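Dock MU-OXO-diiron; give full complex structure.
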Amino acid sequence: MPEPFEAIRITDRVYWVGAIDWAIRDFHGYSTGRGTTYNAYLVKADKVTLIDTVKAGFLDQLMSRVRSVVDPGEIDTIISNHSEMDHSGSLPAVIESVRPSKVVASSMGVKALGEHFGLDGIEAVKDGESLDLGGVTASFYETRMLHWPDSMFTYLADEDLLFSQDGFGMHLASTERFVDELSDCVVDREAAKYYANILLPFSPVVKKVLSKVEDLGIAPRFVCPDHGPVWRDETERIVSDYARWAEQKPTGKVVIAYDTMWGSTAKMARAVADGVESSGRTAKVLPLRASTRSDVATEILDAGALVVGTPTINNQMFPTLGDTLTYLRGLKPKNLIGAAFGSYGWSGEGAKHAHAILDDMGVELVRGVDDMVVSQYVPDDEALRSCRELGAEIGERLPE
Ligand code: FEO
């Protein structure tokens, strides 16, 4: 009987056996508008090896795809490249089911899998260590804090293929398994969104890992991440994207994120954007009740400025701004200039609070707290002219 789910061949000895999650729209706070995949891979050499597993709840898909190529009982080794639960949630059940002769992970992976699931007997592999998978050699390279302490890459020189766990991945559910089968604009957007929302705070680590990979002479034909499609023949494309994103070099783009109660801060945001345009730079305006925090993070990945607008409600900034700024602060964006602005009724703390968070994030503020652009109630023409001047001033400080 054919299996309901089938493995997809990547090379003669490597298959994709993961799961497609078409329905997920919130991945621990990251808005996944196009769903995701949890990728697992099977190496079918003289021995059979499973690379990573899938999120709990997707075990049936994984096992069915495995069965489409081998009897799962033939799995000799499981390699856990990353212990986060979207890749390890099914691991205890797979171990219970197939009884592999060994499960390996980095030393921090052994610790994390023990603490998550009470798993013992997992063997630690060292950075640079190799393991014979039955005629195919796997080499392990730790990538600590890319993006967890346990993270590691597994490289198969014989297959010219790198298993990169979360690195080089994207949240994208598709029936296409290879990047070159998808449209460039979808791939570019989702890869950037993934970097901005997951890897941005670890950009210094990204630079070190890219340099380590180059020093080792690893330039594989295939890069197989734990989410989204497999990179085939154009792996330098994503490597050069990562090198650029890790630099966070400012551009002439200004991100304006705002919320509004009665439309006044919205008017101000539009005037700031017009000022940016007058400077010859570009503005991206994100009303926070129509944009997610993940959208804002993605837009600032290639921006030079972050400007936020908020009304004051009960002596606070608007809650959507609190959410977005808390999220962005954790992502540690670098090399941004910016400002806060907003309308208020009588006390006006909202923009001051936003200003303080931007300052704490290391955003270089173009206005001090005493000369911020604020407006009581509805902004008049003079207030809107001040907004326009703010936008122009910020634009002029950015590269063309
Ligand atoms: Fe896809 Fe860090 O888990």
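Observed: The first strand starts at residue 8 and ends at 9.
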